[in-house]
Amino acid sequence: MRFRYALKEAMSGFRKSKLSSFASIFVLFISLLAIGMFAVAGYNLNRLIKTIKGKVEVEVFIKDGRTSEQIDSLKKIVMSFNEVEDVFYISKEEAAKIFEKEFGENIFNVLDFNPLPASFKIKLKEEFRTLHGVESLVRKLKKIPDFEDVKYRRALLGIIERRFRILSQVFFAAGILLSVVSILLIVNTIRLTIYAKRKLIKIMQLVGATRGFIVLPFLIQGFLQGLIGGFFSALTIYVVVKIIIPQLPDDVISSINVSDLFFPVLIFLGCFLGFAGSWISARKYITYKLLP
């Protein structure tokens, strides 16, 4: 009974402040749409970076003259490092074939000997595919006297991590800003509704209605505004990401995706922002003392 009354009053609040309610829902929709797009971009950027980092390898060159037993021993040492997921051995002969494949020139047509060293290509565990993780491994490898040189894409890793850090901070700041704007607009809408119902609230206070009974309709109104804004923003992103983008011919663009869990989370965020805005407004403008 109490909830039914609160829901009825919440719907009445929509009718009495149509313009501000619509403005709140629309701005909340736009804000959540932007937040959702930032989240989709961040999610797919993270996937792309993981894919790129998965291809980053450390190559260590072995000094000439090492026997197969020594090479096996070196491989076991490298495999024992925490950062290492797998090690692939490339012999001098295999290095010559790779050279010919990449440059289209048989090295023996230029030289009468093979100057290319044998090497290990090292794949790192996912948690160590960072500049810090790679450099930690490289320091260990350089201490082994049987290794002549160590090569890795330091500059590429540095650029990836810096750019990703900057973009993450921008996305996070934009999300916070849009959330605050949404809450403030909900606060203003509920404030206008409270003002429109100030006489009714005063009467309810006089007859002894509890604070919770008075406040509940406004909380429901804010919650519903958030629910509507969240639902339509989630629906829009779903249509774009799940239906439109997969039809596009560009492989990179069509690979954009997001977890199905994302959509209910976005709706929940809308409900939370709406509820938070209405709670702040009700707490500020509905006091224990009688309204004037």
UniProtKB/TrEMBL annotation:
Main location: membrane
Membrane topology, record value: Multi-pass membrane protein
Transmembrane segments: 21-43, 170-192, 213-241, 261-282
Residues covered by the ABC3 transporter permease C-terminal domain: 173-287
Keywords from the UniProt entry: Cell cycle, Cell division, Cell membrane, Membrane, Transmembrane, Transmembrane helix
Compartments where located: Cell membrane
Gene3D superfamilies in UniProt: 3.30.70.3040
Cellular component, GO annotation: plasma membrane
UniProt record, GO biological process: cell division
Residues covered by the FtsX extracellular domain: 56-150
Similarity comment: family membership: Belongs to the ABC-4 integral membrane protein family. FtsX subfamily.
Cited PANTHER family: CELL DIVISION PROTEIN FTSX
Name listed for the protein in its UniProt record: Cell division protein FtsX
